[in-house]
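Run log // design_07
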């Protein structure tokens, strides 16, 4: 086999092994270990951030009814490690919209926790499981926020007063957490299958275009 034939065969072999995380025409911008950030990745992450911000603002008039939990789960399932770039970008944009506050610190805890749980179960295809996980997150949202609130209250007022204040704050928010739980559960149960199919179409389309 001559050199040109070997080169052609080698290129064809590489193209046949292209996965959803890597395209033949992608331009590598940052690479460390097994993580490769490409122009495609940056475009997709920008789209994910935009969807999360738009969804949150569209439902901001409804108390504790949101789509961010749904998107964090779906994006973690299908775009993997990219969610760790998306979440900070989303939080920073929210800060620019609503200014800085204690909730900024809470966001840096609650959304990574949800993404971590979604990462653990990312290979499971079950609308009911994801609805339960999303609902459980909604129910525990106030408790997770209370962890940050408690730490700040303790630093400001001492352990006893801080813990008492944090506990009262958490109890007062439980009715909202229940609403959050019901909303998250319902949204995931209704939208999981349709969005799952859309994600699969996008995945198949990218695999086809990368060949």
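design_07 sequence
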């Amino acid at each position: 086999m001559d050199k040109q034939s070997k080169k052609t065969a080698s290129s064809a072999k590489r193209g046949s092994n292209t996965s959803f995380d890597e395209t033949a025409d992608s331009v590598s911008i940052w690479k460390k270990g097994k993580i490769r950030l490409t122009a495609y990745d940056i475009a997709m992450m920008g789209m994910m951030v935009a969807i999360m911000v738009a969804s949150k603002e569209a439902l901001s008039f409804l108390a504790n009814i949101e789509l961010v939990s749904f998107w964090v789960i779906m994006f973690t399932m299908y775009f993997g490690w990219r969610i760790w770039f998306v979440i900070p970008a989303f939080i920073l944009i929210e800060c620019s919209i609503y200014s800085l506050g204690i909730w900024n610190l809470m966001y840096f805890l609650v959304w990574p926790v949800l993404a971590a749980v979604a990462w653990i179960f990312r290979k499971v295809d079950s609308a009911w499981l994801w609805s339960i996980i999303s609902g459980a997150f909604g129910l525990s949202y106030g408790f997770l926020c209370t962890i940050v609130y408690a730490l700040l209250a303790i630093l400001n007022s001492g352990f006893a007063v801080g813990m008492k204040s944090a506990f009262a704050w958490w109890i007062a928010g439980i009715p909202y957490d229940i609403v959050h739980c019901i909303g998250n559960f319902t949204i995931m149960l209704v939208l999981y299958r349709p969005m799952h199919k859309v994600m699969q179409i996008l995945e198949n389309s990218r695999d086809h275009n990368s060949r």
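Residues 62 and 128 are 24 Å apart (CA to CA).
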